[in-house]
Structure to design on (170 residues):
């Protein structure tokens, strides 16, 4: 039941971000810039769950633009119960340009999320996230969550998620 609630919260938060709110690196809070913002309750819940960390200046910037790396990090934090090692050698030549998110990006690559959404050798992790990219990442993340629920942590769940995602594309 708790995983189902966590999944629903993930979906609600992701949709809020897709529709306009932005977010995160590492900060010390009180996040005064979310007070009386339309997304305040959802962002506060994300902070409580540890998925949203805010910027170093103590803001969340809910009306800002979200970068690819920020959204991927949010999704990786929402899947924190999955034990998957980050890839050692990335297919993306620029993955280490966003050092604060490098481990999350490498984990998303190991899970198949990044190659599914961002084919090629350049990730451009600091570029603004498009709604199409956010929807694809969210779709893959939810598919992955479902696969892990069915099979448990491990390569078989990643393979099942990749198979399901390829069926969606066909």
């Amino acid at each position: 039941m708790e995983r189902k609630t966590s999944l629903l919260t993930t979906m609600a938060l992701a949709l809020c971000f897709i529709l306009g709110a932005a977010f995160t690196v590492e900060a010390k809070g009180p996040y005064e810039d979310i007070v009386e913002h339309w997304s305040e309750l959802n962002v506060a819940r994300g902070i409580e769950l540890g998925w949203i960390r805010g910027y170093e200046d103590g803001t969340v910037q809910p009306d800002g633009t979200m970068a690819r790396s920020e959204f991927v990090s949010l999704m990786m934090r929402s899947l924190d119960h999955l034990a998957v090692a980050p890839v050692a050698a990335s297919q993306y030549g620029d993955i280490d340009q966003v050092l604060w998110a490098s481990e999350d990006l490498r984990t998303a690559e190991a899970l198949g999320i990044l190659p599914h959404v961002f084919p090629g050798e350049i990730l451009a992790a600091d570029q603004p996230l498009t709604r199409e990219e956010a929807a694809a990442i969210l779709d893959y993340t939810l598919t992955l969550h479902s696969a892990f629920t069915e099979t448990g942590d491990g390569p078989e769940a990643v393979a099942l998620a990749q198979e399901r995602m390829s069926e969606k594309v066909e």
About this structure: Residues 18-29 have pLDDT under 50 and may be disordered. Residues 79 and 145 are 7 Å apart (CA to CA).
